[in-house]
Amino acid sequence: AQKITQTQPGMFVQEKEAVTLDCTYDTSDQSYGLFWYKQPSSGEMIFLIYQGSYDEQNATEGRYSLNFQKARKSANLVISASQLGDSAMYFCAMNRWHTGNQFYFGTGTSLTVIP
Amino acid sequence: NAGVTQTPKFQVLKTGQSMTLQCAQDMNHNSMYWYRQDPGMGLRLIYYSASEGTTDKGEVPNGYNVSRLNKREFSLRLESAAPSQTSVYFCASSGLGTGAHQPQHFGDGTRLSIL
Hints:
The structure holds two protein chains of two kinds.
Chain A: E1 3-5, E2 10-14, E3 19-21, E4 24-26, E5 33-39, E6 46-52, E7 60-61, E8 64-69, E9 74-79, E10 88-96, E11 102-105, E12 109-114
Parallel strand pairs in A: 2-12
Antiparallel strand pairs in A: 1-4, 3-9, 5-6, 5-10, 7-8, 8-9, 10-11, 10-12
Chain B: E1 4-7, E2 10-13, E3 19-25, E4 31-37, E5 43-49, E6 56-57, E7 64-68, E8 74-78, E9 87-94, E10 104-106, E11 110-114
Parallel strand pairs in B: 2-11
Antiparallel strand pairs in B: 1-3, 3-8, 4-5, 4-9, 5-6, 7-8, 9-10, 9-11
């Protein structure tokens, strides 16, 4: 079974500090994609960052970086210099082509940035 | 840029009524998806369509049917609504190309209440 685990239901971080949101995954595929999405209180799902299983370097997008440790099957999201607008739910997801391009989502982590 | 458009945004139904949620994307994506999101449970896949002409069950298909009308449109139908189907429904689409895995793009969601 393919599975995404996010073990932190809620996290707090001081404004301007960095925070790491954990994500582990389980798959026997060699090729897969890992994604992080942000869901603010307004409800929309916003794509943040992508890491391919064959990518040797960790992905970065502005203040977001993905700490990819393939042997440990982890894909943690790092947010640097947190801002109040970063307060939201964050979902980790995995994509596999072999099952019809399905995506598998974790249960999410609620991040609160404290001024 | 419209992206993924869902209609309606809000709907209240009585138990036993039927309705269809509409979804259209203008990104020429092959794959489309329907999810439901309940508090504390993340996103659960109802049905998906890897490409035009195919549909498959996801994690929670009972009580729902789908139609991939064409490449752009993917509708979700509740034949006989039940209170347990009260949820926020998201439609998403994704490209299916060679090379990098493509992220999902989401609609704004439909808040559905069954009384």
